[in-house]
Amino acid sequence: MRINKFISETGFCSRREADKLVESGRVTINGEVAVLGSQAEEGDDVRVNGKPLREKSGHVYIALNKPVGITSTTESHIQGNVVDFVGHPQRIFPIGRLDKDSEGLILLTNDGDIVNKILRAEGKHEKEYIVTVDRPVTPSFVQGMSTGVKILGQRTLPCEVTRVSEYVFRIILTEGKNRQIRRMCAAFSYEVKKLQRLRIMNIRLGSLQRGAWRDLTETEKQELGEMLNYTLS
């Protein structure tokens, strides 16, 4: 199989991150430096930074209520990175991102294949947020946000926006542009004061305490697998 898939299936990192490792010359197969598209099979001596990959030890799927100030990265040199914050005994990585200034639900795993399936844009997978802003939420703001906003040179997809209270609204996105909600609000001269993610597809934050994490339930994994046409093992 392709080297990026081989690496991701060990739980070391996602395929995308594996490609970066290969491109930087940090991966070898049986002593030879790997290139993009190299093939590796069971029994091959595959190493990253000179260290052999550990054999696959089972997949982990975690829901974390990320606090503000924690960064959604695997980079160990970044203080407050989400991997060190969780402190899981297995090597895990976040599925997507949640801004350092935002809080709420983020998923982590060692299953490299599921990352691409969830993040794939054409999947239009729902993510739900509750947002507090610095100005009253008006009907025109709700209408403008829901029909699409031009940010980063593109117009966002139509989305579901509902007013919760004078300064709070709920939004369900099916895409994930960089700091999308904050940029959308800024286009209407609103500033986000608090942003919390409540749901990713069928996985809900629920009563999970800030800073706490839990394994996904068997029911959640089954439902998620059905939505992705993928078996979570």
From TrEMBL:
What is the species of this protein?
Answer: Paenibacillus terrae
Q: What NCBIfam families does this protein's entry cite?
A: PRK10475.1, pseudouridine synthase
A GO BP entry is: enzyme-directed rRNA pseudouridine synthesis
**Keyword annotations:** Isomerase, RNA-binding
Pfam family name, one: PseudoU_synth_2
Q: Does the keyword Signal apply?
A: no
Q: Which terms in the Gene Ontology molecular function aspect does this entry carry?
A: RNA binding; rRNA pseudouridine synthase activity
> In this protein, which residues make up the domain named RNA-binding S4?
1-58
Source organism lineage? Answer: Bacteria, Bacillati, Bacillota, Bacilli, Bacillales
The record, for PROSITE patterns, names:
PSI_RSU (PS01149), S4 (PS50889)
Its family remark reads: Belongs to the pseudouridine synthase RsuA family.
Question: What name has this protein been given in UniProt?
Answer: Pseudouridine synthase
User: Per the UniProt record, which EC number(s) apply here?
Assistant: 5.4.99.-
Isomerase among keywords = yes
